[in-house]
Amino acid sequence: MNYTNLQELKNRVLIILGFLIISFCVFYVWGSTKTIDLIINFTNSLANELNQPSFSFIYNSLPEAFFIKIKVSLWGALAISIPFIEYQLYRFLSPGLYSHEKKWLYGFLLSFPIFFVAGFYFLFFFVLPNAIVFFLNVANNVGQSSIRLLANLENTIDLFTIFILVFGLSFQLPLLLIFLSKVGFTSIDSLKKHRKYVIVFIFTLAAFLTPPDLISQVALAIPLVLLYEGTILFLWLTTKRKK
Q1: To bridge 134 with a disulfide, which of 9, 78, 81, 213 should be the other Cys (CB 3.0-4.6 Å)?
Q2: What's the confidence (pLDDT) of residue 14?
Q3: Helices first, then strands: H and E counts in the chain
Q4: CA-CA distance, 164 to 18, in Å (whole number)?
Q5: CA triplet 164, 167, 173: central angle to 5 degrees?
C-alpha cells in the first residue's frame, strides 16, 4: 500500500468518524428516548398478555440513566452509519478490483445489512417474546410467595443488545460460507458432505446462545439450517451458470 492509498484510507476513516459523531448526536437528541420507550412498551405488552404486572424498571445509581442514553445512542449511531461505512469501504476497495470482483464486493456489502435486519425482525417477532415469557414464568415460580420483579433497565437493554447481535451475526452464515467458498477454503461438495455435522453444531450453538427453552433454541436453529441449505443451492446455481 503506497502513500496515496494510506492517505485516502485516513481520509475515509476520518469521514466515517465524523459521520458517526453526527449520527450519535442526532440519535441522542431524537432517538434514544423513543428507543428506550419501545423496549419498555414491548416488555410490558408481553407481561399484559400473560396477565402479569407491568415491568417496574429501576436505576441503581444516579448517573445510570445518562449512561443508558449514551449506550443506546452509540448503538443507534452505529446502526445508522452502517450503509455509509459500507459505501466508503466500497469506494476505497473498488478501484483495485476487476469488474466481477466489484460485483461480489457490492453483493456482500449490500447483503450484510439485509441479513442483519432479517435476524433482527425474526428475533423480535418470534424468539424474544418466547424468551421473555420463559423468564417471567421462571420468576413467578421461584418461591411460593409472590415476588415482584424490579427489572434493572440497563441490564434489560444489555440483554436485548446481546440477543440482537447474536441473531444479526448468526444470519450472516450465508455470507461467511460464500466467502470461504470463493477463497477456496471450502466447496459445495464439502458443504454437502459435512451437512449432518454442521446441523448438529447449529443446534448445539443455538442451545448456548438462547434461553433454555426449546422454542427459542429451535427458532434460532431452524433458520440457520435453512440458510445453510440455501447457501448450498446458491453456490450450485452460480457454479452451474458459469459452466
Answers
A1: 213
A2: 95
A3: 10, 0
A4: 25
A5: 145
